[in-house]
Write a structure and sequence with these properties.
Helix content is about 20%, strand content about 25%. The protein has three helices and seven strands; from the N terminus they run αββββαβαββ. The longest helix has 14 residues. It is globular.
Length: about 170
């Protein structure tokens, strides 16, 4: 994980999360390869849980299938994911899992690159822009609170913040 991603996730946490609120937080793609967001969840009211495809540092939930996680519906208050979506061949299916496990009224923080060199781990499939992040919100009837590409950083990270309404209406 590069420093800009870490700093941006820190900004999202400081902006959107209340330190007084009890929160269960899932980090998708949490395996600590070269950094982790776990240290940003430094609050006695917040419970951090990491989920990834392999057991290892920073992983509480091992997903045997990237598109069907085996977790209950609507159990997390916040789902965060950074520097992971470019490595998921069918990211829109994983996106549906994120929305499924998120409680109504919950938030999603998503960070993915729009540029940068190929970095296979084990694959590198995609780059993202703000319109694509807005489309993800529309796909699942979420309120898009932020969708912006940060061109000033080397990876041109695209940042998305989504709110899941208390009741989702079908289109």
């Amino acid at each position: 994980m590069h420093p800009e991603s870490y700093n941006e996730m820190a900004r999202l946490i400081a902006t959107y999360l209340s330190p007084k609120e009890k929160l269960r937080i899932l980090d998708v793609g949490s395996f600590d390869v070269n950094g982790s967001y776990r240290y940003l969840i430094d609050n006695e009211n917040w419970k951090y849980e990491g989920g990834d495809m392999a057991a290892g540092p920073n992983v509480e939930h091992v997903f045997t299938d990237p598109y069907h996680w085996g977790l209950d519906d609507e159990i997390f208050d916040v789902v965060m994911s950074g520097q992971t979506f470019e490595h998921i061949p069918y990211f829109w299916l994983a996106w549906r899992e994120i929305v499924r496990v998120l409680k109504p009224g919950g938030l999603i923080f998503l960070i993915a690159p729009s540029c940068g060199p190929e970095h296979r781990y084990p694959v590198d499939c995609w780059r993202f822009y703000r319109d694509g992040f807005r489309a993800l919100g529309d796909l699942e009837n979420l309120v898009v609170l932020e969708a912006e590409t940060k061109w000033e950083n080397p990876w041109g990270d695209t940042i998305g913040v989504y709110w899941k309404p208390l009741s989702i209406q079908s289109p």
